[in-house]
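User: I'm preparing a small set of examples for a lab meeting where we compare how different chains pack in three dimensions. I only have the primary sequence for this one, and I'd like the structure in token form so I can line it up with the others. Please keep the answer compact; I'll paste it straight into my notes.
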Amino acid sequence: MPNVKILLVSHKPFKIPKGEYFVPIHAGRSIAMEKSKDGKIDKADLDWMLKNTTGDDTGDNISDKNRYYSECSALYWAWKNYDALGNPDYIGLMHYRRHFIFNDEYYVNNIKDDWHRALCYKNEDFIDDNYIKNIGLTDENILKACTNYDLVVTKDTKFDLIGGYNLRENYEKTIPGSKVKDFDLLFDTIKKLYPEYVAAVDNNINGYKTSLYQMFIMPKDLFFEYCEFLFSILFEIEKQLDFNEYTTNGKRVLGYLAERVLSAFVWKKQADGLNIMKLGVTEVEYPYEDETIEKIINSGCPSVFDYLRLKLKSYFLKGEAKQANKEGYQGLRRRIKSYKKLKKLYKNFIS
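Assistant: Understood. Below is the structure token output for the 351-residue chain.
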């Protein structure tokens, strides 16, 4: 039986799905007490992370650069400390609130609007048995994907459905604090360091298809190839950046660029004839344990509203009022519906 490990990357407590393959990873553990885009973690949450997750701060690591590299600090740790994971035959990466939807019928039947179809994700309220069943998040399905395909990534985005943005425009207009010069620098660096990627990049760079969320499942050899490719590029770009010029969210530039590096890797491997499985993903509104959900309910003001407010503000500042109004209405309506459902379900649960 192949040895499979799926990294579940997080920076705060979350509900860990049941399964033999899942490895919860704490990204940025060495600087956990420093302020992040979500503020400062409290001691109780940090204690939970120390008890229930593996840190990215042992051995060869870049944990202290997490605010720039996001989940890639955990990815780097896994690459350089592979034996600590048990030297798996296959390795994957998902997130505390994002998982692959292995049940494609469920994904297709439940994506009703262009926004979610374009970004390849479905909103879910929280992680429970029904969620696991609906999306097929089981060891059996993960193993089937590993053994039947060379690579698993997200479905191709369709940015043309939501404003006609190509990949460059999407990076510039939809990521708060982004600088489009970094997008250009990334692909110039890829073509400089890896000339064999020129055709794959040139054939796709002006389109609308990319693999978002830095999510994948792949065999060990391909993983090592990908990490060498990814970090050689990011380290080269890091030398040319002054992070003092960026906003708090903008400082995550290397994490955002990493998603585009994965896209280039997929474009090349697809051209090389690899058998690639592409899946939708989830975005869970409340991916927490019951105690945390109760705390959110009692607060009367879920943090997602603050996130939505900041995101809308960034659109307006960039003159994207139409996009702001569209996402604001849809996002607020969805979150209010989710919050009401959460209160009702939790009330039934505790009774």
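A couple of notes for your slides: The chain has a mean pLDDT of 87. The beta strands are 4-10, 22-26, 54-55, 90-95, 100-101, 121-126, 151-154, 216-219, 276-286.

User: Perfect, thanks.
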